[in-house]
Each structure stands twice: as structure tokens, then as C-alpha cells.
Amino acid sequence: MKGIDLLQFAVYLILLIGLAIPLGGYMAKVYQGEKTFLDRLFSPIEKAVFRVCAIDPQAEMSWWQYAVSLLAFNFLGFVALFILQLLQGHLPFNPQGFSAVPWDLAFNTAASFITNTNWQAYAGESTMSYFTQMTGMTVQNFVSAATGMVVVVALIRGLTRHQAKSIGNFWVDLTRSVLRILLPLSIIGALVLASQGVIQNLSPYLSLHTLEGTKQTIAMGPVASQEAIKMFGTNGGGFFNANSAHPFENPTPFTNFLEMLFILLIPAGLTFMYGKMVKDSKQGKVILVAMMVLFVVMLGTIYSSELAGNPLISKLGISGSTIMEGKEVRFGVANSALFATITTAASCGAVNAMHDSLTPLGGLVPLLQIMLGEVVFGGVGAGLYGILMFVILTVFIVGLMVGRTPEYLGKKIESFEMKMAILAVLIPAATILLGSALAIVIPAGTSSIANPGPHGLSEILYAFASAGGNNGSAFAGLNVNTVFYNVAIGLSILIGRFGVILPALAIAGSMVTKKTTPAGAGTFQTTGGLFAGLLAGVVLVVGALTFFPALALGPIVEQLLMQAGHIF
């Protein structure tokens, strides 16, 4: 390992935590309706929004009212984005004259962007107009991220309120998430990125003559504005097909570092917000420690594997660190490994390297992180409410071990909460495995495979894991722009998103009605290093039990065969 690489990893984590602490405090104030330093700017706008939309900020909702509002809002967003793609040929800001998107691709894309997945079965610069990108994709980048944030806030209220009936107001939480958190961060981020060379324009594509005398088309567009929210909102995807490996999206080492920082800033900040809102900072810190332990293990695995490289090539006298095929050649192995770990630790499909080109063990890490439910930081909101499902499972297991009724934050964890938590863990897992099983047994699925052997299975597993886990990145090498994959992956995306949100809200609704009892001598502490270790262990064990057979047939056997000198 190179010392300079380890230093960068350490600097990244230190800066991340240093920025996440004040952001977490600010977000806690926003959701609790407390005064912030931005009130003078945002309070008048917020009141105007409430007045125009007839929102009563004092009215609160039960969990099912909250859920119905969330589902209705997302359904309308889906319909609007679907229709927008079908009509884009007749809409303005389309200098390249792109025609309507095929219905199956429009369905897949609409499902993807309303769920914060941003899986892209298309090349942005050759498929979507500026109007579709701005009014469709960028808008959904904001509101889909906000949807994840409001769910975790509702869950926190359910855990902390004492014998209440309501968990907040969806419309108020959504407005504050976009207006007071996502929008200011994105404006600042977009300006910084634009200053570094990320393009932002509405110009027609440029047609230039190269030094060889041939013509080359240079895509233009409003990129910086979408790039900032794509990262802060852990949306992922890309304005260009090359994603964050494209120099117009990610031009310098500084922007590369910033974009990685943007991805995990809100997810890390939410753990500190959680500690503030439950009135016990240690509760948030213990979750952060568990996340950090898993993150460091994953990063170390992928970095060391990519640094070693392919032993078959090493026999030719070429070290792994010089093999840049599929890596971001401008930034090196370390930054490719770090970016891959970050983007799959969060539910962010942004990539600056080709995951399909990673070593089998290196490719296992992104795949496993998604399969674990992306709770190693996770997406904005989604990561925290996802790991809280594992917290409930851990508390229940500990309760069985010591023979006591499991409790968390002074409230008993009973059969209903356990059923909902298990559903939240199993629904995405079942979606991944069943979708992959279907794809490998029917011609419509296998006909898209370009790589034979276990790597082809890995590509299918990754596609459905990315969908069910709402990540959006891909192994590539698999032609997914077909009717079968567009529909199957689109459905997996929707099930993976709302199959976790609804159980999480149901738990909030159940817990909010319970009374809080003070901790006693026999209460198991959920704030120490022991609990952090148990939580990380439960996450890994559940993931291993669920996915090990599939992983054994894909990346694990491929790694063993590579070590034995066998290639396909």
C-alpha cells in the first residue's frame, strides 16, 4: 500500500466527519422547527410555499396518512416524468432534436429517478433533451432525495415521541428538506464545480474537426446544476454516459475529491442529526462507528485487490498498480477504489471508473455493499432508516441472548416491529435474488450477456442488486436496454424503494404510541463499542446468509479461477 493513498483516505474521512457534525446540528434544527441562521432567507419563501399549496404547517399526520401522501406524491412524479419523456420531441430546449423515448425505457427511467436510484439504461447525451434533463431528472433528484430524508425524520419522531398519534407532516418535511437543506448545498456545490470547469450552458452540441481531419461532436448542456444535486442527494447517474469519468462532469482532482465528499456528507450528517433529535448524541455516534468500521473494511478490500491486480498480467512483469484498464486514468487506482467504495456505500450510482473492469474480489465489494441494503452510510435518509431496521434486529437478538424484552430508546420492541423490520430487510433481498434467477433462466435475460462464465452471472446480480438496492450503478457488459430488462429492473426499483419505506413508516406509527420507560440496571446499552460491533456483525451475517450462495457462483469463484490462471 502507498502511504500517500492512505493519507488521502484519512484526510477524506476527517473532512467528512468535520463537515458532517455542524450539518447534522443544522438539519436537526430544521426538522424540529428551531431557529437557524438561514431563517431570514428561507422563512418567507417557506411561508409562501405553504400558502400557495394550502399546507397547514401545524397539522400533523398519522403514519398511514404520511405514507399515503408520500405514495401519491411519488406516483404523480412518476407519471409526469414518464409523459415528459414521451413528449420530449415536441418540447423546447431540445437543440439536437431528440425524439420520444421508447415506452419501456421511459418507464424504467421514471421509476429510477423518482426512487433516488438513477439507473440509466441510456446514454444521456444521445437520448435526453436539456428540457427533460432539467425539468424531469434534476427536479426528481431533489424530491426523491427529500423523500428519503423525510422518512427517516418520521421514523425518529416515532422512536422519540411519548404515547402520541402523529409523526409529522409529509408536506412540511418535504418542503424543508428541499428548500433549507438540498437547495442551498446544491447551489454552493454547482458554483464551485462550475468554477473548476464543469460546464453549464444551453448551447447546441459542437461539431469540431480533430487534428486527424475527422469530425467530432462535443456534447454540451446544463451539467453543473445537475452534478451538484446528483452527488448531495446520492442520486447518481450522469448527464453524460461516461458519468463522473467525463471531464465535463469531473474535470480535476479537486472536483473528484469534492464529489466524493458531497456523496457522503448528508448521510454522515444524518447520524449526528439523529443523536440531536433523540437527545442522546451517543446513539448517533454508535451508528456512525458501525458504518465507519464496515466502510474501512470494504475500502481496504477493494483497494488492496486493485493494487495487486490480475496475477496473470503480473507474470508479464506488470504490477497491478500500473494496470489502468477501467480505472479513472487521471486520478489513479486509489481514487478509483475510493470512489467505487463511496458510491456503493451510499445509494449513489455515480462512478468514475468501470466497475465491470475491477478484479473479481474488487467487484465483490460494490456488489456486497449494495446487497447489504446500502446501510454503510447509505443514501440520504435511506441509509439511516435502513440501518435502524438492523438496529431493531440487533436489539431483538441481544434481548434473546440475555433473556429480556428487547428495548430501544426506552420503548419495547415487540412482534409487529420485528415483522416490519424483517420485511424491510427481506423485500429488497428477495427482489434481487428472484429478479436475477428469472434473468438467467429465460432467453430474454441470457441473450443480453456479453461475458461468459461467472462474470456474466455477476453482471446480472449487480444489475438487480443495483435496482433493488436503489443504487443505480452498473457492471456494464450487460445489454439492459431491452424491454425485458427495462420492465424487470424498473419493477425491482419500485419494490426495493417502497418495500422498505412502508415498513419503516409502519414501525414509526407503532412506536409513537408507546410509552417511554427509563433505562434500568438490566437495560442493554446501545451506545457503546460492544453494540457498534454487534450491529456491524448483524449487518454482515444477514448479508452473508442471504447472498453468499449467489456470490459464490459469481465473483468468488471467478476470483479463485483467476488465481488458478483460468480465464474466460
What does this structure look like?
There is one protein chain. The protein is mainly α. It is built from 19 helices and four strands. It has helices at residues 3-31, 39-52, 63-86, 103-114, 124-127, 130-160, 170-195, 223-232, 253-277, 281-308, 311-314, 332-345, 360-371, 382-402, 415-439, 443-446, 454-468, 483-511, 529-563; strands at 206-209, 215-218, 407-408, 411-412. The strands form two sheets. It has a two-stranded antiparallel ribbon with strand order 1-2. Helix 6 crosses helix 7 (170-195) and helix 13 packs antiparallel against helix 19. The protein is globular and about 75 Å long. The relative contact order is 0.12.
Strand order of the largest sheet: 1-2
Point out poorly predicted stretches. none
Mean pLDDT: 91
Distance between the termini: 29 Å
Our Rg estimate from Cα atoms comes to 23 Å
The largest sheet, given as strand count, sense and whether it forms a barrel, is: 2 strands, antiparallel
Shape: globular
Q: Would you count the extended β strands for me?
A: 4
* Helical residues, percent: 55-70%
Work out the helix count. Answer: 19
Report the structural category: mainly alpha
**Strand and helix order:** HHHHHHHEEHHHHHHHEEHHHHH
Beta-strand percent range? under 5%
